[in-house]
What we know:
By secondary structure, this protein is of the alpha+beta class. The chain is 30% helix and 28% strand. It has twelve helices and 23 strands. Strands 9, 11, 12, 13, 14, 16, 17, 18 and 19 form a nine-stranded antiparallel beta sheet that branches. A six-stranded mixed beta sheet has the order 1-2-6-3-7-21. The longest helix is centred in the middle third of the chain and has 18 residues, at 273-290.
Amino acid sequence: MNDIRNLEPKALWNKFADLNAVPRPSKKEDRVIEFMKKFGNDLGLETFEDDIRNVIIRKPATPGMENRKTIVMQGHLDMVHQKNNDTVFDFDTQGIDMYIDGDWVRARGTTLGADNGLGVATIMAILESKDIPHPAIDALFTVDEETGMTGALNLKGGILKGEILLNLDTEEDDEIDIGCAGGIDVTAKRSYKEEAVPEGSVGYTITVKGLNGGHSGMQIHEGLGNANKIMNRLLFDGFENFGLQIAEVNGGSLRNAIPRESVAKVIVAGMYDEAYVFDMQEIIGDIKAEYKTTEPKLEIEIKKSDLPAKVMDLGVQEGILRSIYAAHNGVYRMSADMADLVETSNNIARVVIKDGEITVGCLTRSSVESSKMDLANALRAAFELCGCEVEFSGSYPGWTPNVNSEILEILIDIYKKQNNGESPKVVACHAGLECGILGTNYPGMDMISFGPTIHGAHSPDERASISSAQKYWKFVLEILKNIPEKN
């Protein structure tokens, strides 16, 4: 970690290195919670966790800043865990292995955790500092942001004293975020009968891999391949033309990550063996040609394998293949109010078919609540047509932009002064920031979100810009100096 720790600003990168040494999967944050509480207590600051295990650390204003409004500096403790298929790594026990690649900090074969580790590290560095001017701070470290927004959803009113919230969880350093999408999990399930494998069958394993993956909100408009949709296309064609039967499918992982890989075990009748392989190669060629620009590393393999013990009932198989084909994936509607903003989208994130059970998991996002539910209902209809039971869960609201925000004007002015008069982009994002949720129990709080440049979040290609971190750090320090006075 020495190379990372010697980067400027050292205060930020040292705290990031400390944090990344602590395993912190979503819903398994015990170690990072204890780490953060020890950090606050060792500084002699008021430190506690709430009922849902968010950690709050309070630091008084520095001399001369006592008359400024109290601020909330907020980030989430958990990180998305994704790794390359050939990377041996245990997220439950290992810290992230980081290295420098030009202007970027990366991780070897895994997600980096800059989302939202750099935001958390920023707050830690401010809390530890003895020479950075700032008003009174409520540091809020939420849990389980990535898989359910659990910490934000369960934070009670009255705990925070701040009037202004600085959320440090966006990923382009020239953007100031004033709004975000809400989301809802859509899960389709059903059981099926397994049948004996017909005599004379041939077994195959189909593998889709090498896709970029990425953030299912921020990158949903980029035309990236979805391994589950690509696999379904291959299975559907094999079924329609050669009577392919499925033994099992395992595709995707987390709901907020565009699926990068899928593996299926299937059979076809031996009489179709050569014809099936020839047909598959044609389809594989077509798919690769379609994705040659956005997914140049896409690999689709079909290899003979041992016959499975059982296969799906054909009637259920046809239904689920048609439902996944019909289910919307990607951008559903662009915003009519903000240029180039995705309003509503869906990510078919997880497809598992095995041992008589089917599970399809989706994450539907929208900055408009009615549109979110419209798409969720469209997905429900597609899956109910094949006999699935569909559950909606984990719904959280979006964050409605406030163009008259006082803190927004302050940030714009600082940014222009620090960047030769260039104005920042004031945007809303198609990701699930916690601001909208926190605003339900703190409706009067003035909220803003910003952060350093991070690319490839939620994928093993995640990387953080070193030069951007320097720019962002200067921005943060100046913001703290310019928090307005109490009314």
